[in-house]
Write a structure and sequence with these properties.
Blueprint (H helix, E strand, L loop, with lengths): L9 H20 L9 H4 L1 H14 L16 H9 L5 H29 L6 H14 L10 H14 L4 H12 L6 H12 L2 H4 L2 H20 L1 H9 L8 H13 L4 E5 L2 E5 L7 H21 L5 H14 L13 H6 L2 H24 L1 H5 L3 H23 L22 H6 L9
């Protein structure tokens, strides 16, 4: 899958990271950029991380002595900046620095992927797009830990499908123990290895399974079941695909809508909304199966596309669709090839912009069920559904073909169709 070489130019990696650091500093000096009254809202998760780390350092045993809503390795991410801070205010800078490190790791891995397959000239455009997505999600750059599992999941995908399944399986397990979504990497890894089981011997899957069994047993012994029950018992978050449809239908029918704050988020409360539970489980399973089917059908020619589709399907069909979930997809979509990647990047960036516009900038209006705010949410969600459809069903050229990583040249094509298929003569294709 990769043909390693001298590596990417560091300039193209350092520039977006410097811009991201500048965004963090700007937010510290101008917290009003979070929106009216939203600075405290965006700091809620950071306060939770600080509390978990403080209790652990005081001698309390996580899961047994206090409920932790995250998998066990997340505590390591929370604890590291706590070593340098005794207050929440002092905790903020080292935590932001740690998240910028994982952000930089993601950007560097994107650059490695492009360079390894001979697409070094795409670095400015792709890392520029990466930086725009991060800028669009600016309220979550310094106070959400999702940058850590994002980088680990992306690294696991690159390593596993790059010919080192044991290391890749171990990385996928570590990512799952940070946040559950990197388990999708293992699901697609099983698809990949099952196609040539005599050669692969399911080594990556076996490594992932062994680590998860050992770590999972220890987690459950400490009381991790409470954490799982917490997640399963959550209501339907107001920003989800399901809530958007329900709110639009209720508004058109004149039905009264209400919400309550539960499990750390605004949860929709309407008659028979719990009837969607079964539908949600089926939809999440179907989305993952479709991603597996796409990977099997394409022989995992573009692993980042298949894994990205699985992660996106898992995120948008669930009962919770927090704004920081968009972080998970940024590096994957940055390297998806061909026409599929071209469309995917052009759908995802406006979805990121709308995500921040919804939360936190206009969230108050959504909580009062203003029709335009509900419409805005449904537009964002429609973009994400369209993105999933592109990743699953687009019949763009496969990796290794003559147009496997076409980028439309700015001087080529007068209409959209011509731009999609225009070849950049400067590319060195596999």
């Amino acid at each position: 899958m990769y043909a390693g070489n001298s590596g990417p130019r560091w300039t193209w990696v350092l520039l977006p990271i410097a811009a991201h650091a500048g965004i963090v500093l700007l937010l510290w000096f101008h917290p009003a950029l979070y929106g009216p009254g939203a600075a405290s809202v965006t700091a809620v998760d950071l306060a939770i991380y600080f509390r978990y780390a403080s209790l652990t350092m005081a001698g309390a045993v996580p899961y047994r002595d206090f409920l932790v809503e995250y998998p066990p390795l997340a505590l390591g991410v929370f604890l590291l900046p706590r070593l340098f801070a005794d207050t929440l205010a002092a905790y903020r800078p080292p935590f932001a620095a740690l998240m910028l490190f994982f952000d930089a790791m993601g950007a560097y891995l994107v650059a490695l992927c492009l360079t390894d397959r001979g697409d070094g000239r795409l670095l400015p455009r792709r890392l520029g797009w990466y930086a725009l997505c991060v800028a669009a999600l600016y309220p979550f750059l310094a106070n959400r830990y999702d940058w850590a599992p994002m980088a680990v999941a992306f690294a696991a995908t690159r390593i596993w499908f790059g010919g080192r399944p044991v290391v890749g399986g171990a990385m996928a397990a570590l990512g799952t123990l940070l946040k559950l979504f990197p388990a999708v990497v293992a699901a697609l890894g099983l698809t990949y290895e099952a196609r040539a089981i005599r050669t692969t011997r399911l080594r990556g899957v076996a490594t992932f399974t062994v680590i998860m069994l050992i770590a999972g047993a220890a987690w459950l012994a400490l009381g991790g079941m409470r954490s799982l029950e917490y997640q399963v018992g959550r209501g339907i978050q107001i920003e989800t695909l399901w809530a958007g449809v329900v709110m639009a239908l209720a508004k058109s029918a004149g039905v009264t809508l209400t919400w309550r704050f539960a499990s750390g988020s605004a949860t929709l409360v309407t008659p028979r909304v719990r009837a969607l539970d079964a539908v949600i489980w089926v939809a999440q399973g179907a989305a993952l199966l479709l991603a597996i089917w796409q990977g099997w059908r394409s022989r995992m020619d573009d692993a980042f596309r298949s894994v990205g589709a699985g992660i996106l399907g898992f995120a948008i069909t669930g009962r919770v669709l927090s704004p920081q979930y968009m972080i998970w997809l940024v590096p994957f979509l940055a390297v998806v090839r061909g026409r599929t990647g071209w469309w995917a990047r052009r759908l995802f960036l406006p979805a990121c912009v709308l995500t921040t516009l919804i939360y936190p900038l206009t969230y108050g209006w959504l909580l009062t069920f203003q029709p335009w705010a509900i419409g805005l949410l449904n537009v964002r969600n429609a973009l994400l559904v369209g993105l999933l459809a592109v990743l699953l069903f687009d019949k763009g050229p496969r990796a290794g073909s003559a147009t496997s990583d076409v980028e439309p040249h700015p001087r080529q094509g007068r209409n959209r169709g011509e731009r999609v298929h225009a070849e950049d003569n400067h590319l060195r294709l596999n």
